[in-house]
Amino acid sequence: MKKIYVVDTNVLIQAPYALKCFEDNEVVLPLVVLEELDTHKKDEGERGANVREAIRMIEQIREQGDLTKGVAMDNGGSLRIEKNFKDVQLPQDLAEYKSDNRILKVCKGLSESKKEQVILVTKDILMRIKAQLLGIKAEDFTTEQVAEHTEQYSGRITVFAPENLFRDFKKKGIPADQVYCADAKGKRHTPVLFENEFVILQADQSLKKTQMGRVENGVIRKLEYEKSQPYGVKPKNAGQYFLQEALMQPADVAPLVIVKGMAGTAKTFYSLAVGLEKMVNRPTGEYRRILVCRPNSQFDDDIGFLPGDEQEKISPLMRPVIDNLEQLIDSNEEERYKDENELEGKTEEIFDRGIIQAEALNFIRGRSILKTYLIIDEAQNMTPAQAKGIITRAGKDTKIILLGDPNQIDRPFLDERTNGLSYAAEHMKGSSLCWQISLTTEECERSRLAMDAIGRLQDKF
Q: Is the pLDDT of residue 309 over 60?
């Protein structure tokens, strides 16, 4: 049975192609949605660009017929603009002048007048709750959703290997189909291993023996950079060894690295260390600069109103990056902060020499980035469209590093299943050009207090 999908404005703002994602069903846009699109069509950044794209798509469909009666689309569905149901009664607590409530009026009116099932599609959680109170079925826009966070690809696995293969691992590697996992009852099964997946190997006759490797063309091979210490930094746990392996690989081998992990797992710190190693300590000519971008939930709205030039405007967002640089530039913890002016001077020199540059994420739109070590920090605050835009901006010899924690999202209408970091990770899984690693809670290296708090507080909220 065909359904009627009433689409909220926020869906089109995030995914302008959404109109064509409902198969052969009827898509309805309340007139107020057009008014809201008109309000935002001149906005800066991604939001304005998405609104304009959505408007162009609606216009293309309008040219094929009368939108007030419904116009057939290529996917077998139809699009209609609904301007009626102004007199539908809502509970007194819901102010009629609000756009959300005008959309709810349309949903309620259609539900009462049509035989088809009416479904409201909105990114707004409170809107879905209000719809439920009115007896209207509501759901999120699911096209961009990936698996639950606990089920998402982690880029790593622990397996058992026969003793004879384990012994010769570093010389010959181990075929991926020769390792196995075991469930709680001891039953063996052969896991599905993805290209570039990191592996902790355990000898099946001695669980104290472990080695680390990576899947390459169906074979688990040893890590190439296990003994490296980029910019004097030494890995402290398995996750950091895997992270180091992915970051140290040249751009033609690993052009995309996706790193997920909570604060304190050294994602940004290690990424900067490898970049400085290749730019300062041992200049290889691989990259001409390190470019750091850090999206912010309000950045597109606010940057134009902040005083100063671009660098001054984005400097508050770059403070976490500078904090990491201070630790890297002066590794002596006892002496580091004795002369704050000297430390600040060393940090500024890195920027003045153009070794590290910082730019606003929305300024990357439309560019082709060449021969650059590109770090996107806090990538969980990107939309799927932004993630796609960043990855497709990669020019020759550019390495893109997406860093973030899907559990720490500040942007409205995004969650752990729809943010750009998780979206990119799931869709790039298995690509020979993408290396991924999720750092675990136990691999937090920030401080003893941070580790203690993780264990005591993580399940309290």
A: no
